[in-house]
Write a structure and sequence with these properties.
Elements: H1 3-9, H2 13-26, H3 30-36, E1 44-48, H4 54-63, E2 68-73, H5 76-85, E3 90-93, E4 106-112, H6 121-131, E5 132-143, H7 150-163, H8 165-172, H9 180-189, E6 196-200, E7 203-206, H10 209-218, H11 228-241, E8 252-255, E9 258-264
Parallel strand pairs: 1-2, 1-4, 2-3, 4-5
Antiparallel strand pairs: 5-9, 6-9, 7-8
Helix pairs in contact: 2-10, 3-4, 7-8, 7-11, 10-11
Length: about 270
């Protein structure tokens, strides 16, 4: 299907997230996060804040038939899409701050770009540590600071100009743990003393500015904040203000670095 047909047929936020965000941004990080958690054949592994399951699917592939992969998310709509994609994976609805699992249950626990949105980040990390087996590995990915992600900094400025600071804050929120000292403090406060944090370069790629804006607005935190008229206003402004991110072939390419924090349970 063409980009335009896709955007017409895919309506819900979770569907937009899976169809556009996953290939543009999230798919590329799954191997890095799974590697960081040392996920391997035969393990029991948990993906916290799994969304539509892109990382869970990678984890399930690695643990194989002799292991078990579980994807947990609080958003039922995200889980519905995940179940349709791979019904054989174990999908659970629940809070990261109160994981519905026994202590020492998993060989590996992963979380890809979800920690920033948890209501109590310290509690969520403590819960991930609790359900991890002694000797098990944890890997959590978060985006780097907004100032190191110029494409999204530009979108934030554009949204603030058009609609005010509250709307712009929704785009800034995913970068709230970009400061390594702040990120490290979340782990130490949760009782994780041996955390290691490494920064990795990454990129986000979209077919066009229109596709980029459609993905950000319809599939993410602003889905319910902008009406159709405001969305059209944003599209028109973005075509002018975000030209610097268009490559010679007409696609959009953005620098998108992230931190991966790892720890081993003693």
């Amino acid at each position: 299907m063409t980009e335009g047909v896709n955007q017409q047929k895919i309506q819900s936020g979770p569907e937009v997230y899976e169809a556009f965000f996953v290939p543009a941004i999230f798919q590329a990080w799954t191997r890095r996060v799974a590697d960081a958690a040392m996920v391997s054949s035969g393990q029991n592994a948990l993906d916290v804040g799994c969304g539509t399951g892109v990382l869970t699917r990678e984890v399930a592939h690695r643990v194989g038939d002799s292991g078990s992969a579980v994807g947990l998310d609080i958003n039922v709509g995200m889980l519905d899409v995940a179940k349709r994609k791979v019904p054989t994976i174990k999908w659970r609805q629940g809070q990261a701050e109160k994981l519905p699992f026994e202590s020492d249950s998993f060989d590996a626990v992963v979380c890809q770009f979800g920690l920033m949105f948890f209501e109590d980040q310290q509690a969520a990390i403590a819960e991930m540590l609790r359900v991890l087996k002694p000797g098990g590995h944890m890997a959590i990915a978060v985006w780097d600071c907004l100032e190191n992600t110029p494409g999204y900094a530009a979108v934030s400025e554009l949204l603030e100009t058009l609609f005010g600071d509250e709307t712009a804050e929704a785009i800034r929120a995913p970068f709230g743990l970009g400061d390594k000292q702040v990120l490290r403090s979340r782990f130490t406060d949760a009782g994780v003393e041996n955390v290691q944090i490494e920064t990795h370069e990454g990129s986000a790629c979209f077919p066009s500015i229109q596709s980029w804006m459609h993905t950000e607005i319809k599939g993410w935190v602003l889905a319910d904040q902008l009406d159709d008229a405001q969305y059209q206003q944003l599209l028109q402004a973005a075509e002018t203000e975000l030209q610097t991110f268009i490559t010679p072939d007409g696609t959009v390419a953005l620098r998108s670095p992230a931190h991966i924090a790892t720890a081993t349970k003693g």
